[in-house]
Amino acid sequence: MNKKTATWVTVAVLASVGAPILAKTQQDPPAHATASTTTVSGPVAGYVVAEEYARLVARQTYFWAWPMVNVYGRLLAMKQVPQPGLNGGIVPVAPPNHLSMLRDYIQPQERFVACPNQDVVYGSAILDLNQTPVVVQVPDFGKRFWVYQAVDLRTDGFASLGKMYGTRPGFYLLAGPDWHGQVPKGIRQVFRSSTGGGSFIPRVFMDDTPEDRVAVQSVIAKVGLYPLAEYDGKVKETDWSKLPSFGLAGGAAGGSAEEIKWVDPNRFWDLLPTVLDETPPQSGEEALYAQARALIAAAQKDPAIKAAIVDEGAKAETDLVTPLFNFNTFGKRLPANWNTISNGAAFGTDYFTRTAVAKSNIFVNKPNETKYFYADADASGQRLDGNAHYAVTFAKDSLPPVKGFWSLTLYNSHHFFSPNAQRRYSLGTKNKDLKFNADGSLTLYVQNTSPGDDKLANWLPAPANETFSLYVRAYWPQQAALDGSWTPPPVVRQP
Prior knowledge:
Blueprint: E1 11-14, E2 22-25, H1 51-78, E3 85-87, E4 91-93, E5 100-101, E6 120-128, E7 134-138, E8 146-152, E9 161-162, E10 170-175, E11 187-192, E12 197-205, H2 210-215, H3 217-220, E13 224-227, E14 245-246, H4 265-278, H5 286-301, H6 303-321, E15 332-333, E16 339-340, H7 351-361, E17 370-375, E18 390-394, E19 402-411, E20 426-428, E21 442-447, E22 459-461, E23 469-477, H8 479-483, E24 491-493
Parallel strand pairs: 3-14, 10-11, 21-22
Antiparallel strand pairs: 1-2, 3-4, 5-6, 6-12, 7-10, 7-13, 8-9, 8-12, 15-16, 16-17, 17-23, 18-21, 18-24, 19-20, 19-23
InterPro entries: DUF1214 (IPR010621), DUF1214_C_sf (IPR037049), DUF1254 (IPR010679), DUF1254_sf (IPR037050)
Keywords: Signal
Signal peptide: 1-23
């Protein structure tokens, strides 16, 4: 090939199975390249595709598209929901572009989203902004912490609505990439998603007290999301206690201990063309998309290729995606076997972390909204075990540095809550009876059996005969939590 007319190609590179990292590289053309230089965007239509190559492309495509197919699967499920309500009596569900809200903390039986928290009152809406923009209502929350999360099909955030933004009460609009209508009077701001599909999750902080459970009701009644056609400039109030209940008990898939499997390797390739249509490529991703579309076209013509990529998708699920359920497989290593991420809901082309988070704890907030810290092991490196006893001691004046709230949450081996007699799954700002030590430090006790009557307020029950994980949330984090100068204290195994 003549160097002066060389073709410059954006290439997707798949790393080894042992360290599944997807990266994109693009070499800039030399200064002497002419305007006639050809840009190749993908395979040539109609050319033969070898099965081995089809498997290679299938493996990388399955990995980077997994989060998008996950969110799209939720959209398809919500299209079957007749009206806003509670699945199994505990999980807020609604048809696309409508909201359903809880009135208390989420219950341990839910299986819709792994790693929920019991610090906020949740709401949930699945977005289909190709159909219509939606209006979001923001009431006056006063001093109460709140944040509304809006993410696209990639799970990247596209709106800034919350206490950390100084958001004023009123009406806001979420619109898709192709909407060019007139913004009605009274809408304070428009946030535009890069995709039609997405998710909207309000989080409203609530103290773990009877008084605050009552006080929060008048506020959440004014939390709202609905199609633009329903907007009349007047605040709509909803009595969320009147939501109907339908679906399986507990909102779980047949009583499974695991999260509902939103991505099915057998259906993945049938859904992918629509998902690609719904999710325009980011800058530099054109070749990835072209490869994926060429692979799908080849599979549609050749049953052997289709069988090969379905098989390879199933292998990728087992070999690449499933291991990322463990927190210790991704993110940045911190002292005492904690780890963290710094690009939640802003993943860009970090396909590895995006898929890891989607598998282990999807729908994390943006870093300035929430900083997350994860631990699967104690300070000595041993896997956290429900039959052991642990102490987590925050030194004086060294609680998680936040302007919002913080919590330490315990999840079982499936990243859900294990029911316990105390009905306690986290400790933190919401708990008004925590007992501090004489020197001003705070020790939390993580174990299956009671640490003693004098320590009950500081006890975080662990499931017996099961491994578990610990998870620190710092909502509206201060700079020390963001820049790494503060990290969680060691989880110390007790004798």
